[in-house]
Amino acid sequence: MWGVLGSIVLMIVHSFIPFPAEFVAIANGMCFGPVWGAVITWVGAMLGAVLAFALSRKLGQPFVDRMVDRKDWRRLDEWLERHGEGAVFFARFIPVIAFNLINYAAGLTRISLARFIVATGFGILPMTILMVVAGAKIQDLSLTIWLLLGATGIALWLIAVR
Questions:
Q1: Which residue from 153, 72, 161 is spatially nearest to 109, judged by alpha carbons?
Q2: C-alpha distances in angstroms, 24 versus 40, 60, 152?
Q3: Nearest CA to 138 among 14, 41, 22, 18?
Q4: Per residue in 64-96, pLDDT tens?
Q5: Domain extents in the chain
Q6: H or E, element range at 40
């Protein structure tokens, strides 16, 4: 039970202190299996997302008012009000857009909390399941696969730091 609570807390903390939550999801798959690992990871991620959204909604608007022209912000806000859940949902599939950034940005718009929850819930589910299942099956990987994964990771890192 403490492991479950600790994992959920880590996923919530991830919404405020950026770190690769994929490692938590993989560990959840290893510890709790694919089904419970996915449930635990998803619940923690959703709680963190909702808290970040609420914090941004409560405290973020004065900052936006100082930094962005009101007319430009109003146009974006109106567009997001019409298409907000679709934008949030599809943004969850773009790996270069940080999970936390979406939570905070959505909180600054007029998208309703309910629409945000639905879009986020469905939007993060595929990657959550993928990471947890990878963790659940990680011990089944052969040495060749491990070496390929390691080489790929190093190559991507080298490309990224250039």
A1: 72
A2: 10, 28, 21
A3: 22
A4: 665 556 666 666 667 666 766 777 777 776 666
A5: 2-161
A6: helix 21-59
